[in-house]
């Protein structure tokens, strides 16, 4: 119970920190997309000014201590176990819809990028965008339609990586890497054109099964090659999305304070929560970095995903001139993590094993306890 008391004592500090950091998310996601321009600021000078303020330091340390206390307290007390179990089972029951969710998450922003004339990220707009438009619209619609899904995703992944080699700014859209990989591993699912074609090709009574130029010759061999790795989809998603969050938090906020501060000033965010602009930037950066680290480690994955979901929601509705489509991929992949959970090679997997073993040992001890007559 000492953990529970610690959690309650840190509640007030956590509430203040969460309110600040949740609103900070409105200024945090993809600073490059909404920045009005600014003069560069030395990172060391910025951090020294931000952390030398006793109030800023108290809020940051209080928030960190409260988060740690909540996590430790949760592991010790395990409140609402049945609620957590039902939520987890409900999310896992949507597993058959995962391919469709992934295709929507990738297809919609690609179609939008094609019509807008940018290559994956709004900060990369070629001078002659004809090919970029055709690429985005074609790949996006094929993913939405679910035709040749695995191959299209592979083409999209290779195209992104080639573009990244020539334009480092594309790292701002690095979430496309886990998205394409996950689609290549899961396929089109249902509903999709691939599913309809496979059903017709598998039925010997159809005309298509006699002329099939695609399914048996291309799709089946490809599926056989990637199928052994399908169980790694949760790992691919959380590591890829986690890296994206760490990059956005550290590189785009804390290491680039000039632009981040200009966004805070542009939207007068210090009027929403009356703290310094420096605290807004540091708080937003640390929040995104923490979410990213939790996802990479696979620790409290669904809780971290819900936190990210809340940050994206406030961003989408809070910044009027933010390009919404630029967030759809991350928004969708975070939603997919709610379905998959952490998967293999994760802290959550180890915690679940440890909890099951502890419960098993407790049950065995109770069974072996000798009876006493009264």
Note the topology.
Elements: H1 2-9, H2 11-28, H3 31-34, H4 43-52, H5 54-77, H6 81-92, H7 98-116, H8 130-145, H9 149-166, H10 176-186, H11 193-202, H12 207-211, H13 215-226, H14 233-254, H15 257-266, H16 277-297, H17 301-318, H18 325-340, H19 347-368
Helix pairs in contact: 1-5, 2-5, 2-16, 2-17, 7-8, 7-10, 7-18, 8-9, 9-10, 10-14, 14-16, 14-18, 15-16, 16-17, 17-18
Describe this structure in words.
Keywords: Cell membrane, Membrane, Transmembrane, Transmembrane helix. Its main location: membrane. The chain crosses the membrane at residues 57-77, 97-120, 229-251, 289-312, 324-345. It is found in: Cell membrane. By secondary structure, this protein is mostly helical. It has one domain. It is built from 19 helices and no strands. It is flat and about 75 Å long. The two termini are 32 Å apart.
What is shown here, in short?
With 374 residues, this protein is an all-alpha fold. It has helices at 2-9, 11-28, 31-34, 43-52, 54-77, 81-92, 98-116, 130-145, 149-166, 176-186, 193-202, 207-211, 215-226, 233-254, 257-266, 277-297, 301-318, 325-340, 347-368.
- Give the C-alpha Rg: 24 Å
Principal-axis shape equals flat
Structure class: mainly alpha
N to C succession of SSEs? HHHHHHHHHHHHHHHHHHH
N→C terminal distance: 32 Å
How many domains make up the coordinates? Answer: 1
Mean pLDDT: 82
* Number of DSSP strand runs: 0
Enumerate how many helices there are, as a single number: 19
Q: Mind summarizing the main beta sheet?
A: none
Q: Work out the strand percent.
A: under 5%
Enumerate the spans where pLDDT stays under 50 for 5 or more consecutive residues: 1-30
DSSP helix fraction:
over 70%
Main location: membrane
Subcellular location: Cell membrane
GO cellular component, one term: plasma membrane
Keywords: Cell membrane, Membrane, Transmembrane, Transmembrane helix
């Amino acid at each position: 119970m000492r953990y529970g008391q610690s959690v309650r004592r840190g509640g007030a500090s956590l509430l203040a920190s969460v309110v600040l950091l949740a609103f900070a998310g409105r200024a945090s996601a993809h600073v490059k997309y909404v920045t009005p321009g600014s003069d560069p600021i030395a990172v060391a000078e910025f951090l020294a000014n931000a952390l030398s303020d006793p109030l800023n330091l108290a809020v940051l340390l209080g928030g960190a201590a409260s988060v740690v206390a909540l996590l430790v307290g949760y592991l010790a007390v395990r409140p609402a176990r049945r609620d957590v179990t039902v939520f987890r089972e409900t999310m896992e029951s949507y597993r058959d819809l995962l391919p469709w969710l992934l295709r929507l998450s990738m297809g919609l922003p690609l179609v939008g990028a094609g019509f807008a004339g940018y290559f994956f990220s709004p900060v990369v707009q070629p001078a002659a965008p004809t090919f970029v438009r055709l690429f985005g619209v074609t790949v996006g619609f094929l993913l939405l339609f679910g035709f040749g899904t695995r191959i299209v995703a592979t083409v999209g992944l290779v195209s992104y990586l080639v573009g990244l080699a020539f334009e480092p700014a594309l790292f701002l859209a690095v979430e496309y890497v886990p998205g394409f990989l996950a689609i290549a591993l899961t396929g089109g699912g249902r509903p999709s054109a691939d599913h309809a074609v496979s059903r017709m090709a598998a039925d010997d009574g159809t005309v298509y099964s006699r002329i099939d130029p695609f399914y048996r010759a291309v799709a089946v061999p490809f599926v056989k090659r990637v199928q052994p790795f399908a169980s790694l989809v949760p790992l691919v998603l959380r590591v890829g999305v986690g890296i994206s969050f760490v990059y956005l938090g550290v590189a785009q906020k804390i290491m680039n304070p000039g632009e981040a501060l200009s966004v805070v000033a542009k939207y007068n965010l210090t009027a929403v929560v009356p703290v310094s602009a420096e605290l807004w930037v540091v708080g937003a950066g640390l929040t995104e970095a923490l979410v990213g680290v939790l996802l990479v480690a696979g620790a409290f994955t669904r809780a971290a995903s819900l936190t990210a979901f809340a940050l994206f929601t406030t961003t989408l509705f809070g910044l009027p001139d933010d390009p919404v489509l630029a967030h759809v991929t991350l928004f969708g992949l975070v939603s997919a993590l709610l379905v998959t959970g952490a998967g293999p090679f994760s802290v959550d997997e180890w915690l679940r094993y440890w909890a099951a073993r502890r419960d098993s040992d407790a049950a065995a001890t109770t069974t072996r306890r000798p009876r006493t007559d009264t």
